[in-house]
Every structure is written in structure tokens, then in C-alpha cells.
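Look at a sample.

——
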Amino acid sequence: MTQPETVEAASLIDSTQLRAILDAIPTPVVFYDNAHAYRYANPNYASFIARPMAEIIGRPAADVLGPETWAQLRPHAERARAGEAVTHSGWVTHADQSLHYVKRAYSPHRAPDGRIDGYFVIIRDITDLKLRERELEDRRAALQASEAMNAAIVASALDCIVVIDESSKVIAFNARAQKTFGYTEAEAIGRSISDLIIPPQLRQRHAEGFKRYLATGQATVLGRRVEIEAMRSDGTLFPVELAITEVKLPDRRLFTAYLRDLTEARAATAEIEKQRETLHQREKLAALGSLLAGVAHELNNPLSIVIGQALMLREQIEALGEEAAAEGAAERAVKIQNAAERCARIVRTFLAMARQRKAERREVRLPSLIDSAIDLLGYGLRSGGVTVRRDWPDDLPPAHGDADQLHQVVVNLLINAQQALEEKPGGREIAVAIRADPTAGQLVLRVSDNGTGVPEAIRARIFEPYFTTKPMGVGTGVGLAVSRGIVETHGGSLILLPPGTGGGATLEVRLPLGLAEEVQPEGDAAAPAAAADVRPLRRVLIIDDEPEIAGMLSEILARDGFLCDVAGSGRAARAKLQSAGADTSYHAVLCDLRMPEEDGSTLFRWLEEAHPDLARRTVFVTGDTLGPATGRFLADSGRPVIEKPFVPAEIRRLVGALGGAS
């Protein structure tokens, strides 16, 4: 491993925050460099391999794990070092000769320049689980052997065997029954089965059924497997599977009960069902996110056209004078523009929710964010007869956080309140109030509804993931859990306030106040930086495979005196620039990203080599910023980005800034 790679890996592991997180994880975690030497190990890993930390850090994996173990693990480590995420499980022998069955997840780590400088390994020791699986397999094999010897017994054999006579007195009580029920054999023999293991509420029924069978031979339980409750010696009840067979002897009849404790089996079944439901909900959320992102992206181009054409129609009508305005044409254009811009805001909200990008903390104006969330949910609120009441002062200071994530929190709280009102007759109201708490350095947001409130029995559980009281198909049970997680990562809190006199429920969010200095958006920061290298020319090259988008951009800029050349793909633009006599001294280049034949990223890389002056005057106009590859390219290029749908003023401002002239 080269020295720069070692330094980068070390700086990653030496991060105080990351080290604290990794040290606290109750799972062994290590980080190897490209030479397979330990650069970090958390305390759980040192405990797992029974070695002090001083004998781990800096040493090769082969020395710490032993040659044989390292020979087993090295192929997977090499794949991780090559950039592949690898999951592997199997038996391994540690240097102290202890045998473990572990699952290992290998994850390569990339430095900021994209190089792989090492890899993480997260380990889960499931030795006990494997041993239990072996134990269960052995027990199953023993049971099969018993079935071969005596099919009649095996057909109903369970863990506990209790034999009673015709007077219901116990005459046999095996070891498993003693352990399960908590009686010794001496304590059980001779006692009535009713007093021993049958709960009080079932004893009368048992006595009547047993008496009836002895008299008539009519049985309700005999020869069947049923699940009932049994009672331990301490009085606790638990579920058992029961099967009873009759053994007729020459002088009497005996009844053998085979019982199996179902406590662990039911718990395991419940856990499996819970995990299955969790996976199902996650799949639904992932599918929904992909669907929303796809729909939003497909709407970007037509919305850009509608917004742009509406604005230009309005300008054109206003230029005609009072006669056209009197006929209401300008007002109609404004209505088209407002409706299209509302659609655009909703699309941007969908895209922001689907991006799941790294949080960008800056000052956030909560009133605007709440208005946007209400706008997004407007149809459902109106159709549900829900009135939203807003209450906050005009001089409210900003909060500090990520606008997209906080928008998701507000949407979740509003949806939760709306769903709480669905069964309420009469007036339905949601109140959204914000106040500043300067003493605590926080903004306090409260979302209240006038519904029936949260029952006391479940108040402590409403923030649990996937916990929901809503019927199937309504809600997922993750909204409040996700919202609390987002708020807490912002250094705030989300709680359910005690019920008030008016009923309903109130959720309170506390967020830190905004900072004195605000981080500037990338697009705004990039534009002035490029202005110093640009000549104030009046030609613009527009590259977009949508003719209507390209035409609208041309019309917008033509009104400001620009001469626009249009190309339908990156290949067509390259051909135009390479043609003999082509004038490459453009004021700006407006380029789409996703195009047939040659996309915007490929063209931009060519511009950087062939026409670096044009590369410095390039602006990307795109509706696709969701993909990780697209996001990395835009970040690396450092160029301004205008997201579709856009408005003409945004185009004019940025193009004017590139040349220092409008």
C-alpha cells in the first residue's frame, strides 16, 4: 500500500465521530488496508478473536488470524480489495484453535479520488445458531429412529410424556416433563393430572370429558393433536401441543399424553412473520420510491415547456397593451403559469425524496417548507375535508438542517394527522404552529389534529418501526420512526405530547436554530467563478434531444438578444464544433445530460480537452439528477446545473452571469 493510501485510510479511521460509532457497534468490525494489514478494529473484534488490541493494529491479517484461517479468507478479501462487495459464511479456526461459524461482509472503501484504499469487514458470529441447528438435526434423527422402532408411539411422541390411569392419577412423569413443568418425579407420581398441569379454568371441562369417555367411549381429544394451555408448578401458563393415546392392558386402561412446549416455536414463528412483514414493507417503499422518481422525471420536460411557454405568452400578451389585458388573456396565462409551477414544485419534491443524497445542512425557512408540504398533500387534504390552520410569527428565525429531509418529516407528520382524522365525523382540522425558543436555541414545530388521540396503551410504541394501528393497505408504520431518526440526526427531538383537554394528538419537533453563516448552493457558487474566464459574446449553443425544449430555450434567449445554435445530441454538437469554419466562441453552452448517440457527460469531457474555454461556459439543463453516476459527474464537473422544470428567469439569470452581460 502506498503512503497516500495509508494516510487516507488512517484519517478515515481516526475520525473521532466514526471511531465512536464503530467502537459502539455490538458487532466485530475491522478495516484492512490494501496490504491486508489491520488499520482499525473495534473492541468487539478484539474480544471475538481473544487478542489484545496491541497485537492487532498494524499487523498483517495472516499473522493475527493464522495461516490456515487467512488462506480461507484471502480470496474474499482480494475481491473486496478489487472493489467488490462480498458476503461469505463458513466455519473458521482462530489462532487459538477455537472453531467459529461466522458471516463476513466485505465492503471496499474508496478515497475521495475514487481509488480503493482498503476495505471494511463486518463479522457476525452465529456459532451458537449453527450448533443449535445441529442439535435440532440430531433430535430429528433420533425421532426418526424412534418412529422406526415403534410407529404407534412415534406417531404422537413429543417432548414430555405423562401417563395416567383411569382415576386420572399420574403413574409416569419423564425427565422432560419434570424440567418443563417444574416438578420432580416423586412430586408428580400419584397426584391428579388436573391438579398438576391443567389450568383451573380447564379442569371442569377435563373432568367431564374424561368421565364421559370412560362411560361411553366418545372422545373429543383422544387420538388428535391439539394446542392448549398448560400450567407449570409456579402457576404460569404456556402453550403446548398435546396428543393422547389409550393403552389397553388386560386388567386396566392407561392414557399416555405427549406434550411439547410451544413457547419457543411460537416466538420463532412470530419473529419470522415480523421479519417477513418488515421485508415486505421495505420492498414496497423501495418500489414506491422508484415509481415516484420515474414519474417525476418523465414530467420534467413537458412541465418545462408549459411553464416556459406560459411565461412567454404572458409577456407577449402584456406587450399587446390594454386591449388584450382587458379580455383576460394575461390573467389566463398567469393561471396556466401558476398551475404549471405548482406541478413543478410537486415534481421537485418527489425528486428530492427519491434522491436520498447526503444531507446538506443550511438555513431552512420552516414556513416555506410547510407550505410546500401542504401543497404536495393538497388534494388528499381537500378531498378528506381537512382544514389546515397555520400559526407562526412573521419574524420567525430559520432552522438549521437539510431542507429535503425536514420536508420529508413534515410530510410524514401531516399524513399521520390526516389518517388519524379519516374516521372522525364532523369538522376535521390540523393545526401547524411554529415558535422560537431562544433560550434552548431551537425552533419548536407542533402538528396537532382534532381526532380521537392516541390510546394510552400504545403511546410508548408509536415510534417503533413498522408499528401501526391502521388497517391493511393504509400506512406502513415507518413514517414516525423515520421522522424521529431524521430529527435526532439534526440534533433535535420528536415527541408525542401528553393529551390535552381538546382531544386529538400533538407531535412536537424541536430543531436547532440556523447558523450565522449559510452555505451557498453549488449552482450559484459555480456561476460567478466561471465569469472571469468568459468573453461577453452573444451566441449560445443549445444541446437537447427534445426539439420543443431546445426551441423554447432559443426563444427565451433570443428575447435577450442572443443568437442560438441548436444540436439534438452530443454527437451533433461535436460535429458542429469540428466543422470547417465553425465559430466556437460561444457566450454559453446549455447542454442536456441524457441524449441518444452521445450524452452530455461524454461531450463535456471532450470539450475539456478540445475546447476548454467552452467547457468553462457550460451549463447543464437536465431532469435526471437521481442516479449516483449522474450525481458524481455533476459534482466532478463543477458546472452550474438547472433542473427541469425551469422558468425563463432562471435561464436568463445564469446565462447572463456567465458572460457578465445580459
The chain has 25 helices and 22 strands. Residues 1-12, 516-536 have pLDDT under 50 and may be disordered. The CA atoms of residues 537 and 587 lie 5 Å apart.
